[in-house]
Specification:
Double-stranded beta-helix, 8-stranded mixed beta sheet, iron, taurine dioxygenase activity
Length: about 280
């Protein structure tokens, strides 16, 4: 079913759990009425997609600021020289993507981001899709007994996944950049179940990349429980998959989703710009 708003604007849901394509809109020229409708779709569908959007870095940043205050420069990812809040996600010949994990962005910092806006500059002719998961739907699918137990539990999130990755530089003295940065970002303990600040949905707030363990459990118990929950989140009924094209845009709610970059394109050139909005919860 396709919804029509403001006569020209159309919203087409792409999957049962989350995700919608919005057409008839120019993200670089939004009035307040159209943005309000877009924001409602963002809350409802959790990740919204757009095609054929010409966004300069200035327009990209301006769009992000409509959603809230922007995150500062990322401590690891490269960025545009003149706009350090615009992250560059790039694959080039001889520089293939690293290993991919399901993740919610930056849960290793005290307040994770509210949302991100990803704009494709150029992409391979095939491959390189991104998949998003609705973690509120995952929590709602659990048995009531499991929900009750998880509400009282906490998980530890950290930077460990960056160690040894393509973003972990080693200096002449053999010091790891991730190890040095970790001093500024110590492990964070946060509830396994959070409540969305605007929709009031309960969310299973863990992810495979940055959730290290569950507080108060042995290593074996922690890994067993996390793996059981991750396996549920990997089920396709909770997902939407997006095929990138040049000038496509995705805006996702980081408070309620996790996502996975499909790295099936080897070292074919692929470049995207990302702007991230600061969170409104802990």
């Amino acid at each position: 079913m396709t919804d029509s708003i403001d006569n020209k604007l159309t919203i087409t849901p792409l999957a049962g759990s989350l995700g919608a394509l919005i057409e008839g809109i120019n993200l670089a020229e939004l009035n307040n009425t159209i943005f309000d409708q877009l924001y409602l779709a963002f809350l409802r569908y959790k990740v919204i997609f757009f095609r054929d959007q010409k966004l300069s870095p200035e327009a990209h940043l301006a769009l992000g600021k409509r959603f809230g205050e922007l995150e500062p420069a990322h401590p690891f990812f490269p960025h545009l020289a003149e706009f350090d809040q615009v992250v560059i996600i790039e694959t080039s010949r001889g520089n293939p993507p690293g290993e991919s994990f399901w993740h919610t962005d930056m849960t290793w910092q005290k307040i994770p981001p509210k949302c991100s806006i990803l704009h494709a500059q150029h992409v391979p002719p095939k491959g390189g899709d991104t998949i998003w998961c609705n973690m509120a739907a995952v929590f709602a699918s659990l048995a009531k007994e499991d929900q009750t137990t998880l509400r009282s539990m906490q998980a530890i999130h950290g930077l460990h996944a960056f160690a040894g990755s393509r973003y972990d530089d080693i200096d002449e003295a053999g010091n790891s950049r991730v190890a040095q940065k970790s001093q500024a970002y110590p492990p964070i303990i946060r509830p396994i179940v959070t409540r969305h600040s605007e929709t009031n949905e309960e969310v299973l707030f863990i992810n495979e990349q940055f959730t290290r363990s569950i507080a108060g459990l042995s290593d074996a118990q922690s890994q067993a429980l996390l793996e059981r929950l991750f396996a549920i989140a990997r089920q396709p009924e909770f997902h939407v998959r997006f095929q990138w094209q040049a000038d496509s845009v995705a805006i996702w709610d980081n408070r309620v989703t996790q996502h996975f970059a499909v790295t099936d394109y080897d070292d074919q050139p692929r470049k995207l710009h990302r702007v991230t909005v600061q969170g409104d919860y802990e």
